[in-house]
Write a structure and sequence with these properties.
elongated
Amino acid sequence: MLVVNAMFSVTSTPQFIDTPESWPLLRAFTEACLHTFYGLLSVFAFFLLAAAAAIHQGRELPAWTGWTALAAGLVTLAGSAISPVRSGWLAPLSLPAVTPFFLFWLWVASVSVVMLRLPSRDLRPPSGRSPDVSG
């Protein structure tokens, strides 16, 4: 994401925008940014889907975190598939095109708060066993 943001910063610099000779370079940077961005969406989607499976199996987190991970993962996966669209309501950087990215970060922030509020685990060994002092 740092590379994408740096490339977007270059493409929005007035000295390049106002110089027609730089437009082919700006176009190439913009295309590279968009393809990288949508490629990252698929990585985020698979992370969310894996998190949904892990949450369902582990049962350490509230059930809503798993279901929302599944929903956000599916929306994000669909969002990564629209990268070839170049115009209309699914055009790059339109609200529907960037919503999956924001869903990912909203889910991460929400679950991070939930995880911070979990009680700390008891680090004592299970009852009936003596602690290992060897190392």
